[in-house]
Write a structure and sequence with these properties.
Layout (H helix, E strand, L loop, with lengths): L10 E2 L1 H5 L2 H4 L6 E7 L3 H5 L6 E4 H4 L11 H10 L7 E6 H16 L5 E4 L2 H7 L29 H10 L3 E3 L3 H5 L22 E2 L15 H9 L9 E4 L5 H12 L5 E3 L3 H5 L18
Parallel strand pairs: 1-5, 2-3, 2-4, 4-5, 6-7, 6-8, 8-9
Helix pairs in contact: 6-7, 6-11
Length: 292
């Protein structure tokens, strides 16, 4: 495990995972590997041996309300895949861990302390020739008892309204084009808001700014410098948001887990909620940061 002097020991390298593949494939629940994607087509084609595949849209989201799973559904999902509340869970996924970071945040929300991210995600694993398979593992069901919810890692609409009023740092991790209001979603993805722009006062620090070209996270010193340039140093609450809460989970992970900024929160309602609210304040125009 390589922590690069991060605040918390929450990243594992591809080498670390490869060395433990036999343990991940064991029926014993001590170690579990989970690939989290927006769909499971890539997982079905190939994935790390022993990895369970979670579909972010259909398995990690409530299918009636736009919300995270409730506690009982979260417990049922994990227990049905051989994961108990003492398991060491390693998450990885597509788009440099967009959806894996969201799952990490949801695990944290429900009090699962021993959870890690595979640095670099699915692309790093596949492109660097680590072993893959199309075999889907089946593990014995176990009982899972969730904790929480830990509301201290989550922001709601009211929290954002209070942040605007108090001048609390808001980090918009979307592209500059989304931030300015030129577009409503990344190219090829569903438009989920009625109007474009950003929350007043938000700094535009892209989620991609926290990772290197290979998808691995930048060093702690580089992350500190990135956010400090916008006046964010962990001394007060910092609210991260994007379009649907997955890219902001990457920023939340960097702030809360790697830098140890305990008051960093993820606004998972993000622009899909804010951009559809009646009479909510919205700003348009140039990005306030060039750190994107």
């Amino acid at each position: 495990m390589e922590d690069d002097d991060y605040a918390n020991d929450v990243l594992v390298s591809a080498d670390w995972v490869e060395a433990r593949l036999d343990e991940f494939r064991s029926d014993d629940a001590d170690l579990r590997l989970i690939e989290v994607d927006v769909d499971t087509e890539a997982y079905e084609a190939e994935h790390a041996p022993g990895a369970v595949g979670f579909n972010w849209e259909t398995q990690l989201q409530d299918q009636t309300r736009r919300d995270v799973l409730d506690k009982e559904a979260f417990e049922d999902l994990l227990g049905s895949h051989g994961i108990d509340d003492d398991s060491t869970v390693v998450l990885y996924g597509d788009n440099s861990n967009w959806f894996a970071a969201y799952a990490y945040w949801q695990f944290t929300y429900y009090g699962h302390d021993d959870v890690r991210l595979l640095d670099g995600g699915r692309e790093y694993w596949v492109e660097n020739g680590y072993p893959t398979t199309d075999e889907v593992p089946a593990y014995p069901e176990v009982e899972y008892e969730a904790g929480g919810p830990r509301e201290s890692v989550r922001a709601y609409r009211e929290d954002v309204e209070n942040a605007i009023e108090r001048g609390v740092p808001l980090v918009d991790v979307r592209s500059p084009e989304e931030y300015r209001g030129d577009i409503l979603a990344p190219p090829g993805l569903q438009e989920t808001a009625q109007r474009g722009g950003h929350i007043p006062g938000a700094k535009n620090i892209s989620w991609a700014a926290v990772t290197d070209d290979d998808g691995t996270f930048k060093s702690r010193a580089e992350l500190e410098e990135l956010y400090a340039a916008e006046g964010i140093d962990g001394d007060e609450t910092t609210v991260a948001y994007c379009r649907i809460g997955e890219r902001s989970s990457v920023a939340w992970f960097a702030l809360h887990e790697l830098l140890g900024y305990e008051d960093a929160v993820n606004y998972d309602g993000s622009w899909t909620e804010w951009g559809n609210l009646v009479n909510a304040p919205v700003e348009k125009g140039e990005a306030e940061s060039d750190a994107s």
